[in-house]
Amino acid sequence: MEFASNDRISHRQLYRQMVLAFLAPFLLCVFQKREALGADGIVGTAAAVAILLLYVTFLVRVAPGYASLLKCGGKVLGRICGLFFLSYIILTAALLLAVLEEVVPDSLIMGVSGFWISLSALLVCSLGTGQGMQRRGRMAEVSGRLFLGAVILMMLLAAGQGNVSYLQEMFLKTSATWTGSLRSCYWILVCFSGISFLPFVLTDVEKRRKARKPAALAVLTLGGILLGMELLLPAVLGWDRFLSEKYPVLPLLAGAALPGDVLARFDVIWMAFLLYGVLFSLGSLLHYSHQVAESAGLFPGRLWIMVLIFGLSVIRQEGYRIEDYYYDFLAYVFVPGMFVVQLYLAFRGRRKKIMKGSAALVVLALCLAAGGCAGIEPEKRRYPMALGIGKIQDGWLVEYQMPDMARTTGQDKQTDEDQAEVLKMTGRRFEEIEQRYRQTQELQLDLGHLQVLIFGETLTGSEDWEEALRWLKNKPFVGEDVYVFQAEDVSGVLEWKSPQGQTAGEYIRGILENRKSTQKTQKMTLGELYYEWYRERTLPALPRVLCQSAYNLPESGQNKKETDRVLWITAAS
Hints:
- Helix content is 55%, strand content 8%.
- The protein is of the alpha/beta class.
- The longest helix has 39 residues.
- It starts with 10 loop residues before the first helix and ends with a strand.
- The N terminus is likely disordered.
């Protein structure tokens, strides 16, 4: 059956709801605690999926007990069970808001406070909570297949960036042990603990007793994607960097691009889909909070729940942040308590229909708006194509090479300037340079189109190169497919223009991508540099780019003037 009637949802809609609700939080949060990693993580995840397939059958059987917690457990025990489930909902929703508040301003939207992002997300996801389960099912019907297909496509694109040696390194540094595999297995079960709310949905599912198949298929889908990510992330990032990233899934596509370089920052779409999944999960939690409160006869209304969720998400005192105690609450309180509650309901439950829950509609337009330019039009931005970083006596020198937008956009306007526009900013710290740019320049700086990064030899010969990498690492709009070089005369390289008017960033990238003979010996990307940094904590030898007089080159010919200059790329020495 593809569609259901009488305000019930079909099995296919149930499957897509489960995938939508779990997948994005899993991708962002499962790898935070470093429990399901390496060989132990792979074995533990497979074991956890096998256990969950049996657990789904148990949940289908105990579903009638969730219809009315008051009738099943009495006024006291029923309300205690309701508060117990609400504690999970409130804390999990607060964690998702905290994740949005941290991730979205850094990775997707510039110039918007995380406070307003989390507040807007909570308000939007709370709309329409009394509209019925059928509307929620239709939302999953429309967007679930698209979301799952997008995630699988993203993984396939990221697999093209993988390195077999990186994956071999993971298996050399890890091995499957009984204790490690059991710990990983329990961690995956803890992450899947939200599946215990499945019985609240089943009475609104057509042919509830046969719902085990779509629920089990959802578990298999989620488990398969987790297993794929446990192999894919170390293969793309490298084992040491994988361990160092708080959200390793975010830079997964930082170095990917569509064939033909149709879309340079393809990872922005990846982030938009992740954001949509998190918003759907948040809406699901608000939806189930209404159902749990109804079933347990708790305080009417949902305003107090929203206030608690938002308050817990914005607390940032040391030791009281939601992420500091949430996972311990799941592992040591909720999961053991959940099994006790469900065993009780299994023996005391009665088969009655539960009151129809409310559905939280997540506005897809919010996702699309959030994936844009945060209210800053493209014509009000500057797009450096190449970036130079050098060390000077009083701090740092950062040089932004701006392209000729008239030529780049195909307007073909003639100009008498022979050099590219290079903006030079100095400061004791990178933060000071950024502040100085904001104070002196009228256009917003956008590093999302950066092609080439050039380190001055004053930097590569000092011990301060790690500070520069840390600054770049905190710039998620800088793609990891950017080519990295060192140069003695960074300014000369950035100010150079080809006879056809191409800037250094465009010209160098064209050479590396169009001439296969130079790709292996004269190319290093920022992602590869990060890998060496996390593994060895040393700066590897970088390819060099020189700006020389064409007249002095052996193959220059007689028609070259002494003032003509060319870019010359040499392999790392």
